[in-house]
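Tokens for chain A. Residues wanted.
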């Protein structure tokens, strides 16, 4: 963490002021104050994710992938079941007789 104004590393967490900053806290955006120049502002905190959060994140990703696979499978099986149009049917018969 570095102060965006003076580049000092001596910054510390500041108290959240008001509803907006309370809300930003939920998105890892926390208020900080620079000890050297007195700057105060919101900084995005890195590595705020705990191991549990990472596990949750991976689990959500896996669930999304499974849902996508199921959706693709349903779409493909639905397409297979679709009756061919008369034009396609005559084309299939034509190809079959042509091959045989
Ligand atoms: Zn500073």
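Reply:
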């Amino acid at each position: 963490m570095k102060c965006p104004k003076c580049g000092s590393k001596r910054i510390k967490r500041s108290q959240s002021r008001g509803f907006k900053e309370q809300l930003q806290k939920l998105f890892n955006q926390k208020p900080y104050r620079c000890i050297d120049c007195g700057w105060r502002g919101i900084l995005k905190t890195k590595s705020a994710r705990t191991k549990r959060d990472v596990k949750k994140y991976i689990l959500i990703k896996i669930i999304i992938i499974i849902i996508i696979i199921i959706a693709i499978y349903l779409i493909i099986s639905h397409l297979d079941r679709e009756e061919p149009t008369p034009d396609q049917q005559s084309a299939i018969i034509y190809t079959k007789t042509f091959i045989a």
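The beta strands are 11-13, 29-34, 40-44. Helices lie at 18-25, 51-81, 86-99.
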